[in-house]
Amino acid sequence: MKKFIIERHIPGAGKLTQEDLQQIAKTSNAVITISGKPYIWVESFVTADKIYCIHEAENEADVREHSKCGNFPVNNIEEVVTVIGPATAGD
User: Fold this and answer.
1) Is residue 20 within a helix (H) or strand (E), and if so which, with residue range?
2) Cα separations (Å) of 58 from 3, 4, 44, 53?
3) Torsion angle of alpha carbons 53, 46, 87, 55, nearest 10°?
């Protein structure tokens, strides 16, 4: 599967309650279960007015379908081509 970063503009995202976030997670999980496709929601990062999600899917169309079925906004989707971190330096 490929890895994608999804940018969602949600004004006030950083002020969502724990209950709001729980409902978003439940909806996402339900959509994944119902789809029957290989799909993994890895994690999401909440900022003041955006949520950045990391998902693994076969293709971008599956990511868009997940968002549509869950009624989640999509402002940008980027496929991750490689991952680097401190260990990449080889020190």
Assistant:
1) helix 18-35
2) 9, 10, 19, 16
3) -10
Each of the 91 residues of the chain gets a pLDDT tens digit; together they read 999 999 999 999 999 999 999 999 999 999 999 999 999 999 999 999 999 999 999 999 999 999 999 999 999 999 999 999 999 999 8
- Please state, in angstroms and rounded to a whole number, the distance separating the CA atoms of residues 69 and 52: 18
Contact (CB, 8 A) for 39 and 3: no
Residue whose pair of structure tokens reads 């599956």 in the numeric block: 62
**Domains within the chain, CATH numbers bracketed:** 2-82 (3.30.70.3090)
Instruction: Determine how many CB atoms are found less than 10 A away from the CB of residue 55.
Output: 23
- The DSSP secondary-structure symbol of 12 reads T
